[in-house]
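Q: Given only this backbone (296 positions), what sequence would you predict?
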């Protein structure tokens, strides 16, 4: 089979980028001590990854190692991370994914420890750029059983909470994968702060639909666009992955039951005509996202 990739296991620029993402993860408090791991696919059968037992804030390019798609180490003087199988499982099931970031952002990990599903239909930016975040079941980290916990959820998300462990986010490159982690933890922090003031307030059905219309217009996919049995805000799009263990909200008020995109709209409470995108909302979300990226 011809190799359509240019193998990058010796690409110092990519190794330096892994180190930079490691510094961001560490400086943000997303990975204490030696926590977390980072990878990027650089060939048809080659993946650069962080080594085990190293602080992500102080890595050097020569610390980075390489594995094949089965997890066998093929380059590097340090031993590869024991959790690389998680990264490889994601890449195998999602050929579009080139980079994976796993760490323990404290606010999102609090939801992981509590088994609390993250509410939807609250913050516009999260609704458009992230959507529902599933919670994968717990398994002891390091082996293939742990790696397989995320597989049922991979089709419809780029960010997953790992029960009693942390988070994993993935995307087209390292920065894309990292940003998803930062967005998730910022949202979880806002939710926890809001909970101290009272119960966070859900958007109404019309405003929730407007955000999904905006999301579709911008070309972002969402499982709610394809699932006939899914409502707008009820954290139900991943029920097939959860099987009998669907997380139940306890800390937050139950999400309102709004009919899904493929179901009937809300009647008199909503305009049943095709939604007109609010240009002011587009500008607001864009400016806020750009401002956030500038601080990343």
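A: Predicted residues:
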């Amino acid at each position: 089979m011809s190799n359509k990739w240019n193998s990058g296991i010796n690409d110092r620029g990519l190794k330096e980028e892994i180190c930079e993402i490691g510094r961001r993860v560490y400086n943000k408090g997303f990975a204490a001590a030696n926590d977390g791991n980072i990878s990027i696919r650089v060939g048809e059968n080659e993946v650069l990854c962080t080594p085990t037992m190293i602080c992500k804030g102080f890595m050097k390019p020569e610390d980075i190692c390489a594995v094949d798609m089965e997890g066998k180490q093929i380059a590097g003087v340090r031993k590869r991370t024991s959790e690389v199988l998680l990264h490889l499982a994601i890449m195998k099931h999602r050929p579009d994914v080139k980079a994976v970031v796993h760490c323990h952002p404290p606010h999102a990990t609090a939801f992981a420890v509590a088994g609390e599903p993250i509410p939807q239909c609250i913050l516009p930016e999260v609704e458009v750029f992230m959507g529902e975040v599933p919670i994968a079941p717990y398994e002891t980290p390091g082996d293939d059983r742990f790696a397989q916990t995320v597989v049922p959820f991979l089709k419809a998300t780029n960010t997953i909470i790992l029960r009693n462990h942390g988070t994993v986010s993935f995307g087209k490159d390292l920065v894309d994968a990292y940003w998803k982690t930062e967005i998730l933890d910022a949202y979880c922090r806002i939710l926890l702060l809001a909970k101290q003031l009272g119960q966070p307030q859900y958007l109404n059905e019309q405003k929730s639909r407007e955000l999904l219309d905006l999301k579709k217009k911008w070309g972002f996919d969402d499982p709610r666009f394809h699932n006939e049995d899914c409502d707008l805000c009820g954290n139900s799009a991943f029920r097939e992955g959860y099987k009998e263990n669907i997380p139940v909200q306890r800390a937050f008020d139950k999400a309102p039951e709004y009919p899904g995109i493929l179901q009937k709209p809300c009647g008199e409470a909503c305009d049943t005509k095709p939604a007109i995108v609010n240009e002011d909302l587009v500008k607001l979300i864009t400016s806020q996202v750009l401002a956030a990226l500038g601080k990343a």
